[in-house]
């Protein structure tokens, strides 16, 4: 246990000893089926939230009286809050009371994947009363449809489709970047960005480039709010074949007709050009001699 956790636990013990709970100044007597605090049986035991959003874990405690309510993270037994006081250095955690419903709610801001797990709402009775809530964190998936390298010809229309699935909440925004610079829709006749919500858990953003030019080549990144990003490489070709561009524009071109000769002679296409030309001349000479003889 590190020093910060020890200090928080010490402060927690002193708090309980000297305060006797937040409502220690009032002592109520209850009659009926429950003579003291009890958990509302309708309180949920499962909460599902999306990565990067805020989670709210409710704990409804009736007839609390002068008792305190604590929130404890089960995976490491760390005391998070006691009543309205926070006992963890992570300021993403906070507890607040909704008096109208007797609900002590633990708020977890900007939920991370490691926040998933079980949380305990504990009332300071003897023996202690506990209600457990499991927090499930959904991590959306993001991808750009198609291959990681896209080849198009100049003046063609390009559509890069970014699909986000398993998204409980629609992203606040989806930005597109070209080689690190944000793509803006200043001229919709050249570039357009369209975003649409599909169903309950899918969002699609499409970047459309009209009349693609070589300068449009490069890395395109789809970056939604609070989520990972996805990228694709766009190659705008000026008439050349994609394979030729991958090898380099200075690649040697085959001699016209040589491919047929090499196939007929069983020679590899990697034969040196000078030797290939010599063979071609020889084959032509032999063919002419044969035709003269016949």
Keywords:
single chain; 294 residues; alpha+beta; six-stranded mixed β-sheet; five-stranded mixed β-sheet; 4 helices; elongated
Please sum up the structure shown:
The protein is of the alpha+beta class. It has four helices and 19 strands.
Notes on the structure:
- By secondary structure, this protein is of the alpha+beta class.
- About 13% of the residues have low confidence.
- It contains 4 helices and 19 strands.
Chart the SSEs and their pairings.
Layout: H1 3-19, E1 38-39, E2 46-50, E3 55-62, E4 69-73, E5 78-82, E6 85-86, E7 93-98, E8 103-108, E9 117-123, E10 129-138, E11 141-144, E12 149-153, E13 158-165, E14 174-178, E15 181-182, E16 191-198, E17 202-209, E18 218-224, E19 230-237, H2 242-247, H3 258-265, H4 273-293
Parallel strand pairs: 2-10, 12-19
Antiparallel strand pairs: 1-3, 3-8, 4-5, 4-9, 5-6, 7-8, 9-10, 11-13, 13-17, 14-15, 14-18, 16-17, 18-19
Count of DSSP-assigned helices: 4
Which class do the helix and strand fractions yield? Answer: alpha+beta
Uncertain parts: 20-29, 244-271
List how many beta strands DSSP finds: 19
Distance from first to last alpha carbon = 101 Å
Order of helix and strand elements from N to C terminus? HEEEEEEEEEEEEEEEEEEEHHH
> Averaging pLDDT over every residue, what do you get?
79
| Mass-distribution shape | elongated
């Amino acid at each position: 246990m590190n020093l910060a956790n020890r200090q928080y636990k010490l402060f927690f013990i002193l708090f309980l000893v000297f305060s006797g709970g937040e409502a220690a100044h009032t002592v109520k007597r209850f009659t009926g089926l429950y003579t003291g605090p009890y958990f509302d049986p309708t309180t949920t035991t499962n909460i599902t939230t999306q990565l990067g959003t805020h989670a709210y874990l409710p704990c409804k405690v009736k007839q609390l009286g002068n008792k305190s309510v604590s929130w404890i993270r089960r995976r490491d037994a760390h005391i998070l809050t006691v009543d309205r006081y926070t006992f963890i250095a992570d300021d993403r955690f906070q507890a607040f009371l909704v008096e109208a419903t007797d609900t002590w709610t633990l708020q977890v801001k900007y939920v991370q994947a490691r926040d998933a797990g079980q949380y305990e709402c504990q009332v300071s009775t003897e023996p202690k009363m506990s209600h457990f809530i499991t927090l499930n964190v959904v991590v959306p998936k993001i991808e750009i449809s198609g291959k990681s390298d896209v080849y198009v010809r100049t003046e063609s229309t390009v559509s890069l489709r970014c699909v986000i699935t398993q998204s409980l909440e629609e992203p606040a925004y989806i930005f597109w970047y070209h080689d690190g610079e944000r793509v803006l829709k200043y001229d919709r006749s050249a570039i357009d960005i369209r975003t649409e919500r599909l169903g309950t858990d899918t969002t699609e953003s499409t970047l459309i480039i009209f009349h693609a030019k070589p300068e449009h080549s490069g890395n395109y990144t789809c970056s939604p709010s609070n989520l990972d990003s996805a990228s694709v490489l766009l190659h705008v070709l000026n008439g050349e074949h994609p394979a030729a561009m991958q090898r380099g524009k200075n690649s040697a071109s085959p001699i016209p007709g040589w491919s047929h000769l090499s196939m007929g002679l069983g020679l590899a296409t990697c034969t040196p050009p000078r030797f290939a030309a010599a063979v071609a001349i020889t084959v032509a000479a032999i063919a002419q001699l044969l035709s003269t003889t016949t």
